[in-house]
Amino acid sequence: MTAYWFKPKRYGYGATPVTWQGWSVTVVTMVIVIATTMLLAAQTALDPWFWAAVATDIVAVAALWTISRRKTDGEWRWRWGDR
Predict the structure, then answer these.
(1) Is residue 12 part of a domain?
(2) Which domain covers residue 52, as residue numbers?
(3) Is 10 domain-assigned?
(4) What's the structural domain count of the chain?
(5) Taking the CA atoms of the chain, what radius of gyration do you get in angstroms?
(6) What is the C-alpha to C-alpha distance for residues 34 and 58, in angstroms, rounded to an integer?
(7) CA-CA-CA-CA dihedral for 39, 43, 47, 53, to nearest 10
(8) Which candidate, 75, 77, 52, 73, places its Cα nearest to that of 5?
(9) What CA–CA distance (Å, rounded) separates 56 from 35?
(10) In a domain? residue 63
């Protein structure tokens, strides 16, 4: 039996967390993105740490997207509510 961490959104595209695992993955990703964004504010585009922070953000968001797609109960598609 597969335990789903996310459920499809009622309106729009994507999924929302419904278990503590889904929420923890989402919160950890948010913390990573906020921390690296704060680090970006102190860097210039010529600094190699700038691009390391950008790459970290991309990897974190891609990991959240992949995990949430695999752990969603149902498919991701555009939804208009009860229709």
Answers:
(1) no
(2) 17-72
(3) no
(4) 1
(5) 16
(6) 12
(7) 20
(8) 73
(9) 10
(10) yes
